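Morning!

As promised:
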Amino acid sequence: MKSVPALAEGFPDLSGMRIARKPHWFRWISAALIIAVLALIVRAFASGQIEWSYVSRFLTVKVILEGIVNTMVMAVLAMALGIFLGVVVAIMRLSPNPVLKTVAAGYTWFFRGTPLILQLLLWFNLALVFPTIGIPGLWSARAVDVMTPFLAALLGLGINQGAYTSEVMRAGMLSVDIGQYEAAQAIGMGRLRALRRIVLPQAMRVVIPPLGNEFIGMVKATSLASVIQYPELLHNAENIYYANSRVIELLIVAGLWYLLVVSVLTPLQMLLERRFARGTLRLAR
Amino acid sequence: MTKPLVAIRSVSKSFGEFQALKNVTLDIRPGEVMCLIGASGSGKTTLLRCINQLAAIDSGGIWLDGELLGVREQGGRLHRLTEREIGRQRLKTGMVFQRFNLFPHKTALENITEGPLQVQGRKPDEVRAEAIELLRRVGLSAKADSYPAQLSGGQQQRVAIARALAMKPMLLLFDEPTSALDPELVGEVLAVMKELARSGMTMMVVTHELGFAREVADRVVYMDQGAIVEQGRASDVLGAPREERTRAFLSAVI
């Protein structure tokens, strides 16, 4: 065997030499420009026709706090209903049964195809269609008594959400490798048990980021329930400015609260993602 | 002559235009280790999947332990079994996949206990003890709490074998169990399979590992274009093939 040939000349030793930092002139200039623009905006609002003392006074007033509680209660309950419906409809959509498939597709088509505010108004005004509702012979009640703003908002928001969530869930289930179904079948699992034990837990990992998105959308969508008299945050802020005419101040109060809630939700989503990342390499490290 | 554990009679199966199995007839006796060899697309994997009912056959019949699989004869016609009944029949077979298909969100131990706990509804203490013993048998006692992503391919496949064994099957089906492995990891999986074969387990192995077939198999079956071309003792089929197609395949592989 030949020995290794001698190294060629003309390639100096660079070890020990440092790599100089690149000056990022454009970054400095653009940052300065943006700060200037922000300062102008802040000055404009400070000198504009806004009574900031009203903002701070109404920020923690009881009606506003009740409003934010009602907003969160509605967002959580409607999202829970939406996720439940979404999972059921996604399973129906992926089932081999053509009847279930069609029903699921029809549900998604109808509730995605009409505006949410229209659906809320329909639920709220259900009494115009069915004056009394109930189970014949067992129980019945006047629809106006049953269909409170709370129930109308819950059904309207939750059922609408279910249509969107079903597509998110379906995408999650399709992302799980077909081999996982087969391995589950090979140890004797039926379709539903395989979905519940094997496929859905893996789908959750894919599904949580879009669901977090949907939940943030839901928090803000509850403001639409103000049109059917549900006492959520925006509705209560409106009630105050109807009385004292401080429209912009109270809209700022509501806006600040929405921003705060959404800011708190983001780290919560990260915690959930970590929970469902069990067994992935990123966690294993 | 002993009764066969699996009796395959005139089985055909098509995927659209493609006929994957053509009139296949075969017996597997209890305790026998059978290796299925052949080019890809020759129907050997499809045959395994039909025995485990991951694929439904078009015609013919497969009997496992005397029980007709997938259908029931009634009034001169065949009726498909329900999903629940098929699930019960599947418990008699264990399947080891080419790509392992371990459940990535469960640890090695949880992968093994999932079936006995969830499907067979057995006692957790007993199942756990057995799972630990199975892990020891495949040489992975230290990896009980590792997730599949933390294991090498060879380790994953050994956990997959333990998972299949945990259901106490009468028959183990291996679908190219070493084809997805790096060359240096093939040996550890084959060693576990050899140990199983020695312990008397009935095994059907689709494989390209002719060395394994020669050493372990009681019978080698060569398939081509959905049909069985030649079968017999490993030394005969691999050493002195009678059919021209078998000879061509073997010379291409070695």
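Chain A has a mean pLDDT of 91.

Hope this helps with the figure draft.
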